[in-house]
Amino acid sequence: MAIPFERVRLAFSQILEALEKNRQYLNDLDAPIGDSDHGESVTNAFRKVKEAIDKLPPEERDIGKLLQEAGKSIIFSGGAAMGPLYGTAFMDAGKVVSGKTELTREDLVALWEAFAGGIARRGQAKVGEKTMYDTIYPMVEALKKSLAEGKDLSIMIEEAIEAARRGMESTKDMLSLRGRSSRLGERSIGHIDPGAASSFIVVRSFMETLLEKGGGVRE
Amino acid sequence: MAIPFERVRLAFSQILEALEKNRQYLNDLDAPIGDSDHGESVTNAFRKVKEAIDKLPPEERDIGKLLQEAGKSIIFSGGAAMGPLYGTAFMDAGKVVSGKTELTREDLVALWEAFAGGIARRGQAKVGEKTMYDTIYPMVEALKKSLAEGKDLSIMIEEAIEAARRGMESTKDMLSLRGRSSRLGERSIGHIDPGAASSFIVVRSFMETLLEKGGGVRE
Amino acid sequence: MKKFINRPENVVEEMLEGFVIANAGKLRRLPTERVLVRKDAPVKGKVGIVTGGGSGHKPAFIGYIGKGLVDAVAVGDIFAAPPVQRVYEAIKAVDGGKGVLLCLGNYSGDVMNFGMAQELAQAEGIPVESVIVNDDVASSPKDRMDNRRGVAGEVILWKVVGALAEEGADLAKMKEVGTRAVFNTRSLGVAHTPCIMPSSGKPSFEIGDNEMEIGVGHHGEPGIKRMSMMSADEVTELITLQVIEDLPFQSGDEVTVLINGLGSTSLLEMYICFRKVAQILADHSIKIYRTYIGEFFTSMEMGGFSVTLTKMDDELKRLMDAPCDGVHFIQH
Amino acid sequence: MKKFINRPENVVEEMLEGFVIANAGKLRRLPTERVLVRKDAPVKGKVGIVTGGGSGHKPAFIGYIGKGLVDAVAVGDIFAAPPVQRVYEAIKAVDGGKGVLLCLGNYSGDVMNFGMAQELAQAEGIPVESVIVNDDVASSPKDRMDNRRGVAGEVILWKVVGALAEEGADLAKMKEVGTRAVFNTRSLGVAHTPCIMPSSGKPSFEIGDNEMEIGVGHHGEPGIKRMSMMSADEVTELITLQVIEDLPFQSGDEVTVLINGLGSTSLLEMYICFRKVAQILADHSIKIYRTYIGEFFTSMEMGGFSVTLTKMDDELKRLMDAPCDGVHFIQH
Ligand SMILES: Nc1ncnc2c1ncn2[C@@H]1O[C@H](COP(=O)(O)OP(=O)(O)O)[C@@H](O)[C@H]1O
Ligand SMILES: Nc1ncnc2c1ncn2[C@@H]1O[C@H](COP(=O)(O)OP(=O)(O)O)[C@@H](O)[C@H]1O
Ligand SMILES: [Mg+2]
Ligand SMILES: [Mg+2]
Ligand SMILES: [Mg+2]
Ligand SMILES: [Mg+2]
């Protein structure tokens, strides 16, 4: 069961819709340990993605190109801290699936592994530093495990989303070592990282859309 | 029953004490139709008066001199709208009792008539314009009437205070035509004029002290 | 009270102490009175300019001391006109032999205190004239213009007469041009948040969570009416149209625009409002000659802003363009 | 929401429109991106200076465009670093053949976006260096100085490198002196009132009626600790001593003092606080070389202020004294 180009394109619409719904929730997560703007920034960035994708020629079928277009538009016009991070992540993800018009289970894992790598590279982030990486990294681990165990795509995706959720939630008890919240020391503890939360929304919307489960917009 | 210098000197201490107690009340009256500072200004001015009077030579007995010193210190260091008004009033009052070491009933009436004249002269104020003049003018009328009717000093003073109180209260329903509140038009109606209120406090403290009733500080 | 002060009664004195230390290169304080003067005052052969009023309007009044602006400020208490003695000492300190111009807002306190000081100084042989600012169109109808209060338009007066004095103009000329500048200047303000009076810690007025006051004075005096909060464009249109109609400013006029923040309103908001002012002026074919946007005459931390327009003529243009070097108002 | 705006999503765009109209004599906007540049950019033979960051800090960043200051500003959304493309366009627009210096605050968003733009421009052969400001002593302990955020100290950097560029210095020299200015600069702020986020109408942080936050960032980020409100002298002492200890500033040093209002705190209060700063510095035998007091880098209408000290040397003195003609920062 391979995932076609159209599903991936649709995923970006679903991400945007989910982010719009969670805009204020993400701003509010950013208030106690940041500057209250994460929902704005991330929503605006994925609006730019949508615009860029909508400009692709209708015959375009290269998923790598699609992801790289998304990444480029976030890098160039996203701004904030999340811009270079999401942007680089999608660029790197696009590179590993370059030329593919549909994604196998292997491709999907490679894609997210590259995505995680992009964040780590751009943000110098490691696990446990209270960033979006803490959502993505455990998800990639779960994906790799499912792949090795030969699990079904739908199970694989469900478990990946769960791992991402647990990853996001794990940031609550962490001391921040990256980004704006890293200046708070002990005071950063006790709050979910906004970037970890937006990453969870991105991951879930993306993955659920692939599954043809419909929009998958919740929260 | 003539009023000695010492009583008049004491009157200024009593005025100051009464104003200190009513500082915030006068600020609050000044809030809806002015700039919330009348209590500050008038209290500070009478502190200056106290300082000036305390510097008079101990052998000084000229009530005219005393009043003029009070007036001069308010003019020179009082500031605000009330400074030139109270200052001129006390100056003019002092002039008509110049050289006197005690005040007769006639002197007292002349003194307040000059006081009222000073306000009218400096502020171009007429009755009914919602100013301190609306406290002072009816009081002077009452004093003149009592004098003509040959009333007792204590009755005369009590009635004068009552006239001043009614005068002050009459400003509530007036439309302001002078000073800061005159820019409010209809909106100035329904509030007692702060200057009318401070004038009532000044008048009452002064008059009650003359009567040897004690401090006379109320409100 | 959310204000960084020490004892309320020391607010003005401590502020002045800080101000004099910070700006010792440009001004000094008279030893006897709360009067600040330009460091090189009196400037020989130049008409001296004295202004003043209550404190709490920073950068007004003392921020306008400097070359090309005013020579002395008589400093009053919070929102209280300075007493006669201070104005009188200020006049004496800046008279460089050509007389002194007093610039003041049209408030009975200022008019009386400056007026008495003027008489005292004149009695000593110093020529003194005064120009009284009454630019607030909200503060009385047009047929009672002499009852209108002065607001941010005083900044325009200082700029104009300050430049004129540096050019060597005589007192009569300064009074004439200053009076014309004031006549050509109209303002209107709006506020949504009061300031806190240091003496009591109380707000200067009560106002609802969604209310604003149109035509408010910059001591928190009430204005024309209370309304519900509006968008930037709506409120800007409301006040700008009234300002335009009042003079009236007409098609073909050139104006200086001054958007004055009353305290806590951000420059961000002021530029958004200015954008609308510019659109409205363009619609009326009124040309913007110069623009000033910022906090020029505040009411401590009051929230709101005012729009001031001054109709230019060739002389006023020259004077507005002249350089000046005030403490908080500098122009190359 | 007590803010004069129209639709929240248009705040930055409308502000920019107003800003460009008001200051058309000094700057222009690039046709493609939210980038403002000095009118005469690129200036031949002068190193170009690019700065930028989120909006909501007015007069920073765009108020510092002008001769003797910065050449271009890449404008971000409210509190959001500008995206790579804007910084990149800004660099290209101001390169006058001697390369470009980037000045930015130490925020991961700014560091990443400016860094990527720098790489792009370098790849095209434009020499680009950057100086990152990290003056906020509250934002990390001294042994993690590279994690400290930049606050009002960035104004000092702009002034210094802006003057140096006008003198014709080369890029290496500018990076060296700019880095030294930043190293010599330490700040600490306090806030008692949040700003209102235009997007949501919500306050940037919750705080009690009698509370203040020491070491707050100028996007409303929390600081070192929450305390009860103090008098001006107490809070000034608390923060000034920490600033002094951090460098440490020592007896015999000469410093530039910058008291920066975060938005709604009045100049009156800032001068009262400065008075105490001056006393403390005198007690430490630290001499004040220059003083700046006002709103230089705000957080919209946040209530509070910060104290910045920069240790001077002969070169920094010369650069601080140089004239400049920014939109909101002018010096003769
Ligand atoms: N160096 C970094 N590495 C990984 N993630 C980071 C890094 N810096 C910041 N982030 C993420 O970015 C999020 C904040 O994004 P955003 O609100 O857009 O930026 P800003 O802090 O500039 O306002 C944080 O919650 C965190 O997850
Ligand atoms: N022209 C005037 N004639 C008489 N009284 C006046 C005049 N102008 C003002 N006042 C009085 O002064 C009072 C206000 O005094 P104060 O608060 O000290 O001055 P300000 O209005 O300048 O703050 C008013 O309530 C009014 O009674
Ligand atoms: Mg943020
Ligand atoms: Mg008053
Ligand atoms: Mg007053
Ligand atoms: Mg941000």
Strand content of chain C: 25-35%
| Structural class category of chain A | mainly alpha
* Helix count, DSSP H or I runs of 4 or more residues of chain A: 9
End-to-end distance of chain A, in Å?
28 Å
CATH class of the largest domain in chain C: Alpha Beta
Strand residues, percent of chain A: under 5%
What is the largest interface, and how many residues per chain?
Answer: C-D, 61 and 61 residues
Based on CA atoms alone, the radius of gyration of chain C comes out at: 19 Å
CATH superfamily of the largest domain in chain C: Dihydroxyacetone kinase, domain 1
Number of helices of chain C: 8
Low confidence ranges of chain C: none
The string of secondary-structure elements of chain C, in order, is: HEEEEEHEHEHHEEEHEHEEHEE
Q: How is the CATH topology of the largest domain in chain C named?
A: Rossmann fold
Level-2 CATH architecture of chain A: Alpha Horseshoe
Number of strands of chain C: 15
| Spatial order of strands in the largest sheet of chain A | 1-2
Q: What characteristic shape of chain A results from the CA principal axes?
A: globular
So, the CATH homologous superfamily of chain A? Answer: DhaL domain
What is the compact description of this entry?
Chain A is mainly α and 219 residues long. Chain A contains nine helices and two strands.
Salient structural properties:
heterotetramer, A: 219 residues, mainly alpha, Serine Threonine Protein Phosphatase 5, Tetratricopeptide repeat, two-stranded antiparallel sheet, 9 helices, globular, disordered C terminus, C: 332 residues, alpha/beta, Rossmann fold, Hypothetical Protein Tm841, Chain: A,domain 3, six-stranded mixed β-sheet, binds adenosine-5'-diphosphate, binds magnesium ion
